[in-house]
Amino acid sequence: MDMVNVQINGSWHKFPKGTRMIEACRQVEALVPHYCYHPKLTSPGNCRMCLVEMGMPPRPTPGQEVEKDESGFAKIGWMPRPVIACANTVADGMGIRTEGKLSEECRRGVMEFLLINHPLDCPICDQAGECRLQEYSVEHGKGGSDFREEKVKKPKNVDIGPRIRLDDERCIMCSRCIRFCSEIVDDPVLGFTERGSFTTLTVHPGKRLENNYSLNTVDICPVGALTSNDFRFQQRVWFLKETNTICTQCGRGCNMTVSSRQETIYRQTPRENNEVNSTWMCDRGRLDFHYVNSEFRLTQPMIKVDGRHQAATWKQAVERIAEGLKSVPADQVAIIASARMTNEELYLLKSLVASVKTPHVDVVPRMREPDNYLRAADMNPNSNGVRKVLGIEPGARLEGIVADIIGGKIRVVLSLGENLLKIGLEKAHLEKLEFLASSHVLANAVAELSDVVLAGATYAEKRGSMINVTGRLQRLAKAIESPGDAREDWEILRDLVLAVSGSNGLHSVDDVFKRLAAEVDIFAGLTLTRIGELGVQVMETGETIPLLEREKDRIAKGLIVG
C-alpha cells in the first residue's frame, strides 16, 4: 500500500494514498465538522461545513533548492481559498489546517447560512440532545445573525411513510436520506424540488418511504427533519440509558443499542459492525420491542390446582416440573425448546436432557424468504448454537415428536419459549397429556393449558451469547430488569437440572459459559468478556451478507470510504 506524508495542524503523519482528507483528520483526532458526508455513502460535497485550509509545496524553479521545514519535509505553500475535506484525497507533502482564521470564518459563514431559515423549535424538537446543527451552532456559530428578512416557510409534520414524519423547515439539504434510499436499499423515493432557499425535500408523486429500512434515514439525519413515529415525543435522549447488544429478530444478529429508562425500552438503533450489519438495521428488528413491556407479561410462576392457576414460588414450580418429568419412562417425555435461546441456556438444556434421558428433544425452525440486504432466511437468532451446543439439527425430530404426542406415545411435555399450537398440535392433543409445563414471556393459550407455567425473560433482560447465520459468536447484553418475579432462562434451567439430578455449582451466566468453553471446541479459550462488543468468528457457514458484499464493491471502486 502506497503511503504518503501529510501535515495536519503542524504535525506530520503517514496515510494510505487515496485517503479522504476528512478521514485522515479523523484518524489523528483533528475532527472536521460535517453534515452531508457519511462514510457509507457517496460524497456530494454540498453542505460546505467541512471546509479546511490546504497547501502543497511550491514547485521550485530550475536550479533552486527545495526549502525544507524543521521536520525535513518540503515547506508548504498555503492556498488562499479553502477546500472541502469530504471529497478530496490526501497527497504526498500536503498540508491541512482544520484550525485557524480561514477555516473558522468559513464555518461561521456556513452555519449562518444554514440557520437563516431554520425554525427556532429546539425545545420541542425530538432531535434535541443529539442534533449536529445544535452542537455546531455552539461550537462554530457566530452567536448572532445579520439576517433580518422573513424566514421561508416550508411543510411541517408531513406523513411520508408509515414509520416516518418529515419537517421540511428543519432540513439542511444534506441529502443523506436521498443517497441512502437510492444507494443502499434501491428505493429512490426521496428527492429535492424547487431551488435556492425554497429547496424542499419530498417523496416522488405517488410514492411513499415505506421500505423495511426506512428508519435508517432517521438515524443518519443530522437534524430533526426526519423523525420516527414510534419514538416521536416519547423521551428526551439525555434521560436514556444505552446498552450495546444484538437484535434477535432473525439469524443475522444485527448489532444495536437499546435505549431505556426506568426498565422501559423506548427505542433500538443500529451500531456499527462491518462484519455483520455495517451501520444499518431493518425496521422490523428495531421495532420488535414493544411486547417486552406488555401488560400481558407473565411475572411469576403458576401451578394449576383444581383446574385453575395459582401463584407459586419458584421452588414449588421447579419441584413440580421435576416430579412430572420423572413420573413416566424417559421415552415418554419430550422437551421442545427454542432456537431463540442463548448458548448458555442450550448448554443447560443439554444437561437437563441428559438427566431426564429422553431422546425426544428439538427446537422449532423458522425459515422465511430473505431480502437482498440484511434479513436472513433463518428467523431464529441462534440456530447455529443449537447445532454446536445441543448437537442437533433444528427441526429434524420435531415432526416425529408431534406425531408421538398426537398418538399418545409421549405423555409428558416441557415447552421452553415456544407456542405448541403453532407446530401442528391442537388444544385437544395438549389436554390429553398427563403433564404439560411451559415457559413463556407472554400469557397465551399454551400457558393456559399448562399444569405449570414459568415466567421467562426477554432478549433485553438477560446476558448470554449467540452464533449468527454467518458463524459469528456475539454477546447479548442485559438492558433492563425482568418484571415481577420473572427469571432469566438459564436460571430456570439450572434449577431444573438441580431438581432432577443434583447440584451443579453454577452461580452466574459466566460460570455456564466457562463450562461451555471447556466442552465445546469452538468456544475454547473464550469468555463472555473476550467475545467483545463486535463478536468473534467461530465457524464458517458459507453464507454471505448481500448488503456487505455490495459495500465492499463500492469501497473497492472508491465510491465510499466504508
TrEMBL record:
The keyword Membrane applies. GO terms for biological process: ATP synthesis coupled electron transport. InterPro entries: 2Fe-2S_ferredoxin-like_sf, 2Fe-2S_ferredoxin-type, 4Fe4S_Fe-S-bd, Mopterin_OxRdtase, Mopterin_OxRdtase_4Fe-4S_dom, NADH_UbQ_OxRdtase_75kDa_su_CS, NADH_UbQ_OxRdtase_ferredoxin, NADH_UbQ_OxRdtase_Gsu_4Fe4S-bd. Coiled coil: none annotated. Residues 102-141 form the 4Fe-4S His(Cys)3-ligated-type domain. Its main location: membrane. Residues 240-296 form the 4Fe-4S Mo/W bis-MGD-type domain. GO terms for cellular component: membrane. SUPFAM superfamilies: 2Fe-2S ferredoxin-like (SSF54292), 4Fe-4S ferredoxins (SSF54862), Formate dehydrogenase/DMSO reductase, domains 1-3 (SSF53706). Gene3D superfamilies: 3.10.20.740, 3.30.70.20, 3.40.50.740, ADC-like domains (2.20.25.90). It holds the Pfam family Molybdop_Fe4S4. It is found in: Membrane. Its cofactor is [2Fe-2S] cluster; [4Fe-4S] cluster. Keywords: 2Fe-2S, 4Fe-4S, Iron, Iron-sulfur, Membrane, Metal-binding, NAD, Translocase. Residues 162-191 form the 4Fe-4S ferredoxin-type domain. GO terms for molecular function: 2 iron, 2 sulfur cluster binding; 4 iron, 4 sulfur cluster binding; metal ion binding; NADH dehydrogenase (ubiquinone) activity; oxidoreductase activity; quinone binding. Belongs to the complex I 75 kDa subunit family. PANTHER family: NADH-UBIQUINONE OXIDOREDUCTASE 75 KDA SUBUNIT, MITOCHONDRIAL (PTHR43105:SF13), RESPIRATORY NITRATE REDUCTASE (PTHR43105). This is 2Fe-2S iron-sulfur cluster binding domain-containing protein. The lineage of its organism: Bacteria, Pseudomonadati, Verrucomicrobiota, Verrucomicrobiia, Verrucomicrobiales.
